[in-house]
Design goal:
The protein is mostly beta strands and 478 residues long. The protein is 7% helix and 37% strand. One of its GO terms (molecular function) is protein phosphatase regulator activity.
């Protein structure tokens, strides 16, 4: 673990680098399995979970002995293993696509993890290991007395006097006693929800009722009861009768944070649909349809690709919806579906590079979008390991970088540049629109912030950057 602070920042954006979990070597041999594929705080913010492409789940626990919001390793377990579908001749990766915590009801933690096909409910709890400290064979009083009686006599053993107490009477029988040896953190799968998705699972979301959750793949959304693993209910199905007529796929889905009957799902066509499960068993008729009409003058070969929504999230009060497409973040009011109330440009500086991004497949990258704890800040990632924290009230875009080499360069440079840039390449923190100053010809598209999580109560964020987990906190946090 490394610690430190970023270069001096604007007072209006007091975000500081707090921790980094991951390899510290100068030359890091990063394997594909080590790349973090999902990050998620629990509902209290005291625990943090990461999943990687190797199928592992790592849990971190808040370190109460430290000031501020710092974390320490809690436990690690193998959630998924690689599988092979013999019927379809398809290899199923062990990569963890999503992790979602269930609300805690006792001393144990419960969380859902999923790969492309199978969802698992894990119970994580502290288990006391005990060892046998004393049992019936520990003492030798009875045995030695019997041996002395038989050895002191020259008589045949069958003629020896009857030992006292009588063998088998149980007079000297003692029950084994156990003593505490160690306490470990154990993880056991309580339920396995399998064989319900023909396509890759992209989302899971736990309902506010604490009893059900949804899982979404490219064409369907299924409703599960947490206690029933052998059946689910299909509540959205957009699969056409003829697959040649397929025009869109589902990209993300999430339950409303308060109303247990509402959920939203987004599509590759740039639309968001709000469904109400009270209307019908199959929610093929959405209650609301959020879509912004495209300006015909901006239409191009890439229009459909860049309009695809990679993530959709309700605000914590359920009043707003946040969506992320390739170029922008959009804020929607649930009561106004004709256009977003705010469009935040993230990748405007890459519009001239769309052809190159298409060729290297980066145009298909799926960036997550997150709400801050107060509903005023939103977060999303970018390239060069940049990420944006936008304050929608102050109209301010803070750009930070989660990159070890950048921290080392800043330490080496010291304070030569007054008010140094936290994002590098001219992207100064706390300056609205500063990301537009990035040198487009010097963007490292292999470094990208796709996955992150916002602390539910404080201005603290967890950022996944390849195999490293970065923790950033605002100065007011903790």
């Amino acid at each position: 673990m490394e610690g430190g602070t970023t270069a001096p920042q604007d007072a209006s954006a007091p975000w500081k680098f707090a921790q980094c979990f991951g390899d510290k070597g100068e030359v890091e041999d990063i394997t594909e399995a080590d790349i973090i594929s999902t990050v998620e705080f629990d509902h209290t913010g005291d625990y943090l979970a990461t999943g990687d492409k190797g199928g592992r789940v790592v849990l971190f626990e808040r370190n109460d002995s430290k000031k501020g919001c710092e974390y320490k390793f809690h436990t690690e377990f193998q959630s998924h293993e690689p599988e092979f579908d013999y019927l379809k001749s398809l290899e199923i990766e062990e990569k963890i696509n999503k992790i979602r915590w269930c609300r805690r009801q006792n001393a144990a933690h419960f969380l859902l993890s999923t790969n492309d096909k199978t969802i698992k409910l894990w119970k994580v709890f502290e288990k006391s290991l005990k060892v046998v400290a004393e049992n019936n064979l520990s003492g030798d009083r009875f045995q030695s007395a019997h041996a002395a009686a038989t050895s002191s006599s020259s008589l045949h053993p069958s003629l020896a006097p009857t030992p006292t107490p009588l063998v088998g009477s149980g007079a000297n029988l003692r029950m084994p006693t156990l003593t505490h040896h160690d306490t470990i953190v154990a993880a056991v799968p309580r339920k396995i929800y399998a064989n319900a998705h023909a396509y890759h699972i992209n989302s899971i979301s736990v309902n506010s009722d604490g009893e059900t959750y949804i899982s979404a793949d490219d064409l369907r959304v299924n409703l599960w009861n947490l206690n029933i693993s052998d059946q689910s209910f299909n509540i959205v199905d957009i699969k056409p009768v003829n697959m040649e007529e397929l025009t869109e796929v589902i990209t993300a889905a999430e339950f409303h944070p308060i109303n247990c009957n509402h959920f939203v799902y987004s599509s590759s066509k740039g639309t968001i649909k709000l469904a109400d499960m009270r209307d019908s068993a199959l929610c093929d008729q959405h209650a609301k349809h959020f879509e912004e009409e495209e300006d015909p003058s901006n239409k191009s070969f890439f229009s459909e690709i860049i309009s695809s929504i990679s993530d959709v999230k309700f605000s914590r009060d359920g009043r707003y919806i946040l969506s992320r497409d390739y170029l922008t973040l959009k804020l929607w009011d649930v009561n106004m579906d004709s256009r977003p109330v705010k469009t935040i440009p993230i990748h405007d500086h890459l519009r001239s590079k769309l052809c190159d991004l298409y060729e290297n497949d980066c145009i298909f990258d799926k960036f997550e979008a997150l709400w801050g704890p107060d509903g005023k800040k939103v977060l999303t990632g970018s390239y060069n390991n940049y990420f944006h924290i936008f304050d929608k009230e102050e109209e301010q875009d803070v750009v930070l970088q989660a990159d070890k080499s950048a921290f080392k360069n800043k330490k080496a440079a010291g304070n030569k540049k007054k008010g140094g840039a936290a994002a590098g390449n001219g992207a100064a923190p706390g300056v609205p629109g500063a990301v537009s100053q990035v040198n487009v010809d010097n963007v490292d598209f292999n470094k990208k912030i796709l996955h992150a999580s916002f602390h539910p109560r404080e201005n603290t964020i967890a950022i996944a950057a390849t195999n490293n987990l970065f923790i950033f906190s605002a100065a007011s946090s903790g």
